[in-house]
Amino acid sequence: MKKTVTVESNDPETPKLVLTLAGETWTDVVATPNRLSLGEVGMNETATHTLNLAVTNPAEVTIDSVTFDDDRFTIEPAKDGDDGVKRYDVTYRGSSEIGRVNGRVRVTYTAPDGEQHLDVPIWGQIVGNLRYPNSVFMGVRDGAIESRQLFVSTRDGKPVRIVSATDPEGRLEVKLKKPFGPKAELELSWKEEEPPVGAIRGALQLKTTDALQPSVTIPYTIGGSGRGASATRKPRLRIPERGLTPPAAAR
Q1: Mean pLDDT in the chain?
Q2: Which long-range contacts (CB under 8 A, 24 or more apart) does 9-16 make?
Q3: 246 pLDDT exceeds 80?
Q4: Is there a single domain that holds both residue 151 and residue 211?
Q5: Residue at 237 is within a domain
Q6: In this predicted structure, what is the pLDDT of residue 93?
Q7: Which one is predicted more confidently, 217 or 9?
Q8: pLDDT band at 66, cuts 50/70/90?
Q9: Phi and psi at residue 105, in whole multiples of 5°?
Q10: What is the CATH number of the domain that holds 57?
């Protein structure tokens, strides 16, 4: 490891002096990778990745345990390499819930200065067969809420049918332009003539024929543009100061 420090002074002979500091950091146990990424994992599917642990000084450091703080994961010793590196298979058990998953592998070891811990973070994304936007934004343009196309596709390429798509709040009109196929298409439009003042939020409810995702919820945000809201806001009548005669148009 190297770092440089630049010292500037009013010394005419050496107005700038660059100092280089060199050294090395000592780690008792090195984890490779130092962060475990599961990537995208399908619903109810498992994923296994290998964690390598190298002890820098085996004569003084011993690994006591490698554990998880989450029962969604298991960890089993794998065959150690000829280089003395200890290997572990980290397995995610699977989940039926879509979303991000996080965990931590804790390595407990004994060093000359006592018991120590090394934490290795792990994360991944649980996904279903359907692909759709995490959320939908419908902004204001020329004083009106823009319509929005929404697509729902499949990861396996097989067709899916959108049985129904509704807005429980009743703000949006939802048309099923192409309800069946490997890429279904919907059109969203704002029912009112004028956009809302400020942003409003809700969620679309979709019913599908997908076995793993028969119901899908997609949050939406409508408006929120100050320019759009003011473009449709009725002009206010300016009240003249006391003692002044108001304009004829305002009487």
Answers
A1: 85
A2: none
A3: no
A4: yes
A5: no
A6: 92
A7: 217
A8: very high
A9: -95, 125
A10: 2.60.40.10
